[in-house]
Amino acid sequence: MSENIANQDTTGSTPGADPYRRKTITFENILDQTTGQDSVRVKSVGQDQTPFEKKYDPSHPAADAKGYVKVPNVSTMVEVMDAHEAQRSYEANLNTLQTTRSMLTRTIDLLK
User: Fold this and answer.
1) What's the whole-model pTM score?
2) Domain check: are 63 and 25 in the same one?
3) Which domain covers residue 111, as residue numbers?
4) pLDDT class for 59, splitting at 50, 70, 90?
């Protein structure tokens, strides 16, 4: 999710404040009763409850009494892997649609 990557350095602005929390998204398949087609929509947007790491930076406005700042629980590697997984899923679905279309076209050609 690009929002997670964009906010991977967003910390709190007051002492001890929580930084940006990574968002997660869940999709679901929906059958359109009028067309008989499956479609995908967002089922829910949640927040990753992974604990925040702390970085020592006593000069930061969000530093606690010990000088530690909570940093977002966003990992660029995880976000890139999630994007690759979404891309592979999209490509697999597209290939399925293309194969189905090809099979239907061949069937119609045989019936002519």
Assistant:
1) 0.71
2) yes
3) 75-112
4) very high
